Each structure stands twice: as C-alpha cells, then as structure tokens.
C-alpha cells in the first residue's frame, strides 16, 4: 500500500463496520468533514491537515505501529489481541462491547475453574489465554476467525468466548452467557514514531483538543430557566451541579433567568429540584463543543 506523504496527519478508521459511522460522526463534530468517500482508501478533510485512511479494523493496530497511519480508531479488544506497539491516547466512549464466555444451554458452568479441561473456541486467543492464565485454568484455546458461535454445535469446541452485545446470536445458537472476561470501547491510538514529527504533533494536539471538547460537551447540557428572584440563593445552594450560573435580569422585576452548564447524568434530579423551587420555562440544550 502506498500513501502519499503530504505532511498531513494520517488517521486510520474502520472501512465498513460497527466503528465507521461513530468515528466519522466524532470527526465531523471536530470539524473534520469526510464526505462521499465511497470506495476510496484515502480521503482528505477540507480545512484540516488530515487524511482519513479506510482500513479493515484488524489491520489498523499494525499500520499505526509501523507509522503507515499516524493515528487510528480501534476497539480495545482488537488492540489488545494484536499486541501492537502503539500509544493509547484517548477513550472515545463508543463501540462499547464485552468479550464473554458462552456455554451450550445444557452445560452447567458456574465458576471459572469449571472451564478446566474444556475446549474454548474464540477469535481472541491471546486475550482468552491471558484470562485462563490469570485464573489458573487449564483449557485448550481453538482459534476461529468468524462465526465462533457455531463451534459447539459442530463439535469442534465445548464452549466459546466471543463479543456479545444483545445475546441474540447466542440464543439462536442455543448458547447462554457466562463470565465477561474483557470490556472494550473504541480508543484513539498513535504511532510511536509520531512524536518525532513536530508538525504532525502540532496537528495532533489541535485534533486532541477538539476531541476532548466534543467529549466534554457530550457529558454536559446547557440549562436555561426562569426563577423568582427570592428563590435564587436557596436554589443555587441546593444544587451543587449548577456550576457558576449566569444570572440575567428579566423584564418582570420579580424574576431572573438562569443559564448554566450541568452534567448530563444529573439532569432529572436537577430539574425536579428546580421545579420545586418555582422554576419555569426550563430549556435543556445540547452543547456541540466546550472549549476550555
Ligand atoms: P472488519 O471487516 O473491519 O474486519 P469486523 O467484522 O471485524 O470488521 P465489526 O463487527 O464491525 O468488525 O466490529 C468492529 C468493532 O466494533 C469490534 O472489534 C468491537 O470493538 C466493536 N463492537 C461494538 N459492539 C459490537 C458488537 N455488538 N459485536 C461486535 N463488535 C462490536
Ligand atoms: Zn475485523
């Protein structure tokens, strides 16, 4: 594969799969617009010195390790399995999934130790072997690259270890969920070579600042409401998450408007308290970006 060295930051993402859309959505919010990429391998982002490389996810850790790409978005499950020498920069908060054991319905396995002597089919042999080692379990690991869930029915394994989200695939194959051995999400990785390139490091720092602003904005909401003047001090004291609010006078002398950034986790708790203090006209707005 030859990729033009034009000084742009090369960012590898999955070509077609579960991480593609979320990666592009994040990049878009960071001002890296990727449009009409169709079947192309490399696409430039107008207005930002980066090129997006579309690759199979399994290849991303190695390409980033070797510096073919400077950055990559990859599931931690693949990253750990590939044992590539890369720098983990940031958890991206999407692509969440679990690698778990699963057993045929008729099998009764309660404790990890009961896996002793079993044959385990998986696409993640390294992660599974590490789990077995850490738990002092002697079992045979059988590597299968796809459709791991049919291995017990084919008689080539007793149990499986695979990525599970809803469990539907397991159910169809008459398997039931067992221990979770690895929790994964998408992460941003960098080539160990990158820090030697000062210009690219500068571009990376801009990109990282944008990513962190988007992440911060996602975990917050912008709250606006009207409150009787007499309730302001008490209300702000009551709600610690109402950080340094802006208080704006209104035409109605008895009332003020309050604007504040609040953590998304506490929205309903805060709104309930505000209602009890006589708040009206409550508006909650998404924040697109929060730049420190
Ligand atoms: P490729 O053709 O690029 O090799 P793939 O089939 O290996 O694609 P996908 O199924 O698209 O990969 O999954 C990519 C990543 O998405 C996984 O490695 C994992 O980190 C994450 N992921 C999130 N949810 C799930 C899920 N329910 N099942 C599988 N992977 C998931
Ligand atoms: Zn893959």
The strands making up the biggest β-sheet line up spatially as 2-3-1-4-11-5
Task: List the ligand species.
Answer: adenosine-5'-triphosphate, zinc ion
Return the CATH class of the largest domain. Answer: Alpha Beta
Low-confidence stretches: none
Q: Helical content, roughly? A: 25-40%
Radius of gyration over C-alpha positions, nearest whole angstrom? 25 Å
**Annotation field: number of helices:** 9
Which structural class do the helices and strands define? alpha/beta
Approximate strand percentage: 25-35%
Do you know the CATH topology of the largest domain? D-Maltodextrin-Binding Protein, domain 2
What is the helix/strand order? EHEEHEHEEEHEHEHEEHEHEEHE
Whole-number mean pLDDT: 93
Coarse morphology = flat
Number of domains: 3
Q: CATH superfamily assignment of the largest domain?
A: Periplasmic binding protein-like II
Q: What's the N-to-C terminus distance?
A: 39 Å
Strand elements, count: 15
The main pleated sheet reads as: 6 strands, mixed
Task: Assign the CATH architecture of the largest domain.
Answer: 3-Layer(aba) Sandwich
């Amino acid at each position: 594969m030859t990729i033009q060295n034009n000084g742009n930051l090369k960012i590898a993402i999955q070509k077609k799969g579960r991480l593609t859309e979320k990666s592009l959505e994040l990049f878009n919010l960071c001002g890296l617009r990727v449009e009409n990429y169709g079947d192309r391998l490399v696409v430039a982002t107008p207005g930002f010195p980066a090129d997006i490389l579309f690759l199979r996810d399994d290849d991303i850790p190695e390409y980033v390790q070797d510096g073919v790409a400077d950055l990559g978005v990859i599931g931690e499950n693949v990253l750990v399995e590939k044992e590539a020498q890369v720098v983990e920069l940031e958890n991206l908060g999407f692509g969440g999934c679990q690698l778990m054991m699963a057993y045929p319905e008729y099998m009764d396995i309660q404790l990890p130790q009961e896996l002793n002597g079993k044959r385990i089919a998986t696409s993640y042999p390294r992660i599974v072997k590490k789990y077995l080692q850490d738990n002092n379990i002697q079992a045979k690991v059988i590597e299968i690259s796809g459709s791991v869930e049919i291995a017990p029915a084919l008689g080539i394994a007793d149990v499986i270890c695979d990525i599970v989200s809803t469990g539907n695939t397991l159910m169809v194959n008459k398997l039931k969920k067992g221990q979770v051995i690895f929790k994964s999400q998408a992460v941003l990785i960098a080539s160990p070579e990158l820090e030697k390139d000062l210009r690219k490091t500068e571009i990376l720092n801009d990109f990282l600042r944008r990513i962190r602003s988007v992440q911060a904005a996602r975990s917050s909401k912008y709250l606006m409401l009207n409150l009787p003047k007499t309730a302001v001090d008490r209300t702000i004291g009551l709600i610690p998450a109402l950080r340094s609010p802006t208080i704006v006078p209104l035409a109605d002398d008895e009332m003020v408007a309050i604007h504040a950034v609040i953590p998304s986790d506490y929205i309903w708790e805060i709104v309930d308290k505000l209602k009890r203090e006589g708040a009206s006209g409550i508006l909650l707005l998404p924040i697109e970006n929060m730049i420190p």
